């Protein structure tokens, strides 16, 4: 039995291990070619991990990919951005109140920002309104819970599937259900319930399929379901299979909330470590938004203005220092010659798997000037990427050709279709939060006493420790994330 299990797992692993050479690169010029050359593809076998339900936009190539891409981008069309702006402001406003009820301490920022991103996406994609109440017998969410016959909430199901992706991929379904391990049981329940939630969403959209066919401005759910469900005027086979409908609902939700949620968490922590950048953002917010209430903030005028100034610079610098996706993979499908940034040519043979190392490309000191910090001090701070967090580099007019060296949302035909969504969302969240509040690292009274009552010294020590934690405690699942506790205090601005 044990032997059978082991060989099953090895079969699954070997399915996506590819023959051929491995190329690692952090050279932006090579990375750009890997994103755009026609004979370079995504390694679909490796990406089977995402295909829990069926093939998705992220795991297919060629004509099949074009079909998926068309469906997904239709649902992410620019008309959704105003709703993203309004929902992000609404969710952040209500979250501030929720934090206040909890004593205004954010123990794990990611816990909240992931949910915030999920709430925004659920509203835009599915017209599903999630709020900050816990799931009780009385609220809307638990109606959904019983309507779908689920044991756990929509959010718990999604977060558990995400956390247990490796297990779900490696362990056959019947074993996941029967093995007596807590992790397997959790994964099985989450997988079953999450499938029911998605089927319920699909079913509701499918019930009004004829109306959807002529509706302008479809949500992403509607666009996906329409691509997989026959209508009266088009009763024949549709471009997406049933499995791919569920697969794409899952993939877009995962790609959209995991990335933006984790980026926002890094932003909050970095801004708590560097309060001078909070002050600069607040100065910009006061000048731009004055005393207008948040429902009068305009997506057309305020968003681009905020993005151009200090707030936009902070977001870029967060994506540079803590780009949540640290690696991408590409496969060279036919031998090709590439030229690196020093002009040297390289012949790359067929079947070369290429690892595009974003983390290194965005922190290369030859491209991104490090701060003037001594080697000894860097060692003391565990060489944390937080040391070189410097948003002002983006306000310097001399940063030209940014596109050539900085591409957090990818490049070429597979460039992130959710980029405008993410940018509007992240600007709206930070604007709402910092217009009303400030964040502070928590300095404990014990530490103040150890520093003989010197609060400044205690703060400096707390900050140093936070910078170290931003290296030592950053973990990786599909994206990098700060899962461990690093408490920050929310203070209302005077
Ligand atoms: C901070 C936020 C985000 C970052 C850093 C990010 C980054 C990326 C990158 C680098 C890619 C390209 C992958 C490749 O070339 O293989 C990508 C693809 C993708 N992203 Fe995003 N993304 C973010 C937010 C979003 C959001 C909010 C959505 C949806 C609402 C989204 C949906 C997608 C989808 C569907 C793809 C696959 C595109 C394809 O394969 O054609 N992303 N993302």
Automatic annotation (TrEMBL):
InterPro entries xrefs: Cyt_P450 (IPR001128), Cyt_P450_CS (IPR017972), Cyt_P450_E_grp-I (IPR002401), Cyt_P450_sf (IPR036396), Cytochrome_P450_monoxygenase (IPR050121)
Keyword Cell inner membrane found: no
Pfam families hit by this protein: p450
Keywords: Heme, Iron, Metal-binding, Monooxygenase, Oxidoreductase
Cofactor(s) recorded in Swiss-Prot or TrEMBL: heme
Residues involved in heme binding: 416
Tree of life domain: Eukaryota
Any GO molecular function: iron ion binding
Family: Belongs to the cytochrome P450 family.
Listed name of the protein: Cytochrome P450
Gene source species: Clohesyomyces aquaticus
């Amino acid at each position: 039995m044990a032997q059978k299990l082991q060989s099953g797992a090895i079969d699954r692993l070997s399915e996506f291990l590819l023959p051929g050479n491995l190329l690692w690169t952090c050279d932006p010029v090579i990375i750009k070619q890997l994103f755009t050359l026609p004979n370079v593809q995504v390694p679909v076998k490796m990406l089977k991990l995402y295909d829990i339900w069926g093939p998705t936009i992220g795991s297919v190539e060629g004509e099949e990919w074009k079909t998926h891409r068309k469906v997904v981008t239709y649902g992410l069309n620019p008309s959704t951005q105003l709703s993203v702006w309004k929902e992000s402001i609404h969710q952040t406003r209500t979250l501030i109140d929720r934090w206040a009820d909890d004593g205004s301490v954010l123990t794990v920022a990611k816990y909240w920002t992931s949910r915030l991103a999920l709430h925004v996406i659920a509203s835009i994609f599915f017209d599903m309104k999630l709020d900050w109440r816990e799931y009780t017998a009385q609220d809307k969410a638990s109606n959904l819970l019983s309507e779908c016959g689920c044991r756990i909430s929509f959010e718990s199901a999604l977060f558990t599937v995400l956390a247990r992706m490796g297990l779900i991929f490696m362990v056959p379904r019947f074993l996941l259900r029967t093995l007596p391990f807590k992790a397997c049981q959790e994964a099985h329940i989450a997988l079953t319930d999450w499938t029911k939630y998605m089927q319920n969403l699909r079913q509701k959209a499918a019930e009004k399929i004829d109306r959807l066919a002529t509706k302008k401005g479809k949500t992403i759910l509607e666009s996906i379901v329409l691509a997989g469900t026959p209508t009266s005027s088009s009763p024949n086979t549709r471009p997406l299979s049933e499995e791919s409908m569920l697969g794409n609902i899952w993939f877009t939700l995962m790609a959209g909330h995991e990335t933006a949620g984790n980026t926002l968490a890094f932003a909050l922590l970095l801004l708590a470590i560097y309060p001078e950048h909070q002050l600069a953002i607040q100065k910009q917010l006061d000048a731009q938004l004055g005393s207008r209430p948040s429902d009068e903030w305009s997506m057309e005028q305020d968003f681009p203005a905020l993005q151009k100034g200090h707030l936009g610079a902070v977001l870029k610098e967060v994506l540079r220092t803590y780009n949540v996706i640290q690696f991408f993979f590409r496969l060279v499908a036919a031998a090709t010659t590439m030229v690196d940034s020093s002009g040297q040519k390289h012949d790359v043979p067929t079947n070369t798997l290429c690892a595009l190392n974003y983390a290194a490309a965005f922190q290369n000191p030859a491209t991104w000037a490090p701060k003037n910090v001594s080697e000894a001090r860097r060692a003391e701070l565990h060489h944390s990427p937080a040391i070189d967090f410097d948003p002002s580099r983006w306000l310097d007019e001399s940063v030209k050709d940014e596109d050539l060296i900085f591409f957090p949302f990818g490049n070429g035909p597979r460039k992130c279709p959710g980029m405008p969504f993410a940018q509007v969302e992240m600007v709206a969240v930070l604007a709402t939060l910092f217009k009303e509040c400030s964040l502070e690292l928590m300095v404990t009274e014990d530490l103040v006493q150890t520093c003989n009552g010197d609060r400044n010294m205690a703060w400096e020590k707390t900050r140093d420790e936070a910078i170290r934690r931003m290296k030592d405690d950053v973990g990786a699942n599909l994206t990098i994330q700060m899962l461990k506790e690093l408490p920050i205090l929310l203070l209302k601005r005077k």
